[in-house]
Structures are given as structure tokens and as C-alpha cells.
Amino acid sequence: MLARQRHAAILDRVRVTGGVRVGELAAEFGVSEMTVRRDLDLLHERGLLAKVHGGATVAGATDEPGFQAKSVRQQAEKTAIAARAAQLVRPGAAIALSAGTTTAELARHLVDVPALTVVTNSLPVADILHERGRADQTVVLTGGVRTPSDALVGPLAVGAVRTLHLDLLFLGVHGITERTGFTTPNLTEAETNRALVAAADRLVVLADHTKWQTVGISAIADLGTADVLVTDDRLTPQARRVLSDRVGELIVVPVPDGGTPR
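-> C-alpha cells emitted (262 positions)
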């Protein structure tokens, strides 16, 4: 198992069980305890988990990993979700992409869609679309204060979004539960995301399976607000039942080779 795969497996285990022990991980992966401790140190520095004596636990509801830290997680899942979400976009549409690594992956799938107007508060999304420089594509960057996830948020961003009318919003989220809905660990980013939701005719949430039962401190929207939720086929049957009942449409996409290894 590669280090990147081991890191993803550790994070999955922490989310499911709430905590892991160094000795158990070392035995499971067939590596030394020192290697596991280095893995936990790295994941802790990236804000993806909290180190404790002898192991690690889930990070808190206000912990906010940076864009680069999140970009290495669930890569296969994000690619599959983005490719399917891109099929929902029609030429000539006015759409918005919120900040996030899955929405950034979606941007890569949209560079060849003609006559799009794309509103975003994500610097990576704007960069991806700008690099292609298509004359028939308009990119509107909201402005605002930059967050660890490379989002532009705050009054400037909210003010810009409130003047717009959009066909579709593709929303990336930090967490999803039946009780809290769609959430983020950043209070100001939540406000900007709520403005994006209000500006769009339809809401499409992009979320891989690890977002289920993860909670951020600030709510963006209830589950029923989503017209479509696109996720991957590692989402549990119980979660699929809940989401199928609550969102307008649940799209579950297969991930080649089973996605990121546990």
C-alpha cells in the first residue's frame, strides 16, 4: 500500500470509528509503528485529524483543512463525481461553482462546454477555467477574503452573488448528516454559500462518501434543498436510503477499481 493510500485508509477509519490506535494500524498495514506515527503527524499537520496519546481521533467541527490537503483525498471518487456532474450542464448556461476540491475537478470537465458563464468564489476553479482562455466562456470571480480552502468569502462576495440569477449551483460541502444537512467548518464561507444557494434555480451538491456523518459548525442548507446530490458508490446503503428520501435526486456513480483503498 502506498503512503497516499494508507493516509486515505486512516482517515476513513477515523471517520467511521471516531478514533484509531497506532498499534492496530501498524498491524493492519504491515508497517512499523514509527511509520504510522509519521502518517498521523502529517495528517494532524494538515488538519485532517487530531493526534492523541497512542493514536488519533476525528478533527473538530471547526477544523478546516486547506485546499492542498483536501485535494489528495478520495481522488478517484472526486473524478467520477465531477465527470457525472458535468453531464448536467448545458451549453449557454449560467452556473456557479462553490469552493472545494470536487468543484475544482468539475471545472476541468467544463472547460470545453461552449458559451458558459461561470460564477465562482473559488480561486482554483477560476484558475482552471482561465488557463484555457476560451473566448466564448465568461468567468466571474466574486471577490472577498480568502479562506484556507481558497474560497473568497465575506460581505463583498455575498454582495456580488446577490445581484445574480443562476441556472445551476454546484456546491461542495464539508459534511452531511440527516440532522444538520449540508455543513462547513467556516462560518463566513457558509454565509457566502447560502447566498449562492439563494441565487440559483437548482442546487446540485457534490459529495464523496466520506462526507456522510461529518459535521461542520455552520449549516449551509437542509438536505431537502438539494435538487440533486451526486456521490460515489462507497456510500453506505443506510445513507443512500436517507438521502433518497430527502434530496430531489440521488445520483450514485461507480468508481473504477473501488476508489481510494481503505
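The chain has two domains: 3-59, 69-256.
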